[in-house]
Amino acid sequence: MALERTLSIIKPDATKRNLTGAVNAVLEQAGLRIVGQKRIHLTLEQAQKFYEIHKDRPFYAELTEFMSSGPVVVQVLEGENAVAKNREIMGETNPEKAAEGTIRKKFALNIGENSVHGSDALENAKKEIAFFFSECEIVG
Ligand code: CMP
């Protein structure tokens, strides 16, 4: 087992419904520690840059417009196998397919407004954390 860090985003559909604390409770109860966290409002350009990997997908415009439509909470989560663990806790991208007890099953509205994002691999987690956080913003 390895102590890892992963990037999490609480998306605009969840911040709008005051679900930040409820999402954090699920993360913490599952053993993930929130070692960095800030509430920001992304510009469309920032959302486009963050999701550049999806730029050729049909939902790219919808995704980046949604992610810049309201505040998000960007977080660094730490724990044993944090990348895989967070993805398990989030559940499937499509909330209709998400397992009981997962964040998306509990809170997501649909495949786009799905309440949370989590890095899909350790290498991407490092890049995504660097995108949002400087070293002095994360508790060591
Ligand atoms: P996320 O983990 O943030 O990474 C990419 C996002 O694209 C994903 O969560 C979904 O919210 C979004 N997404 C994936 N598929 C679709 C789709 N078919 N329609 C709209 N959004 C989608």
Helix content: 25-40%
Query: What's the multimeric state?
Result: single chain
- Tell me the number of helical segments per DSSP (H or I, 4 or more residues long): 7
Sequence of strands across the biggest β-sheet: 2-3-1-4
Distance between the termini: 19 Å
The count of strands amounts to 4
Tell me the radius of gyration.
14 Å
Contiguous low-pLDDT stretches (5 residues minimum) are none
Rounded average pLDDT = 97
Structural class: alpha+beta
- Characterize the largest beta sheet: strand count, sense, and whether it forms a barrel: 4 strands, antiparallel
Beta-strand content bin: 15-25%
Q: What letter string, H or E per element, gives the SSE order? A: EHHEHHEHHEH
Overall shape: it is: globular
The hetero compounds bound to this protein are: adenosine-3',5'-cyclic-monophosphate
Please provide a written account of the structure.
With 140 residues, this protein is α+β, with helices and mostly antiparallel strands. The chain is 39% helix and 20% strand. A four-stranded antiparallel beta sheet has the order 2-3-1-4. It is globular. Bound molecules: adenosine-3',5'-cyclic-monophosphate. Residues 54, 59, 62-63, 93, 111-112, 114, 117 line the site of adenosine-3',5'-cyclic-monophosphate.
